[in-house]
Amino acid sequence: MAVPKRKTTPMKRGMRRSADGLVAKAYVEDKDSGELRRPHHIDLKTGMYRGRQVMEPKR
């Protein structure tokens, strides 16, 4: 059985585990336009948020 010669330092352990925190960004389909957008974000194409017009749509 292979046995490590030296103890793994916390820095090396952290570098190895750094990718564990990466997650894919969640997207939801907008009910009105059908476009994908981030949850709890304004739809920039229509300017709508939670069924209300909150800003002028981008053209």
Indicate the overall shape.
rod-shaped
Straight-line N-to-C gap: 64 Å
* Average of pLDDT: 89
Main sheet summary: 2 strands, antiparallel
What order do the strands of the largest sheet run in, or round the barrel if closed? 1-2
How many individual β-strands? 4
Query: Helix tally?
Result: 1
Ranges with pLDDT <50 over ≥5 residues?
none
Can you give a write-up of this model?
It contains one helix and four strands; from the N terminus they run αββββ. It has 59 residues and is an alpha+beta fold. The protein has a domain at 25-59. The strands form two sheets. The chain has a two-stranded antiparallel sheet with strand order 1-2. A two-stranded antiparallel sheet has the order 3-4. The protein is rod-shaped and about 65 Å long. It starts with 9 loop residues before the first helix and ends in a 6-residue tail after the last strand. The mean pLDDT is 89.
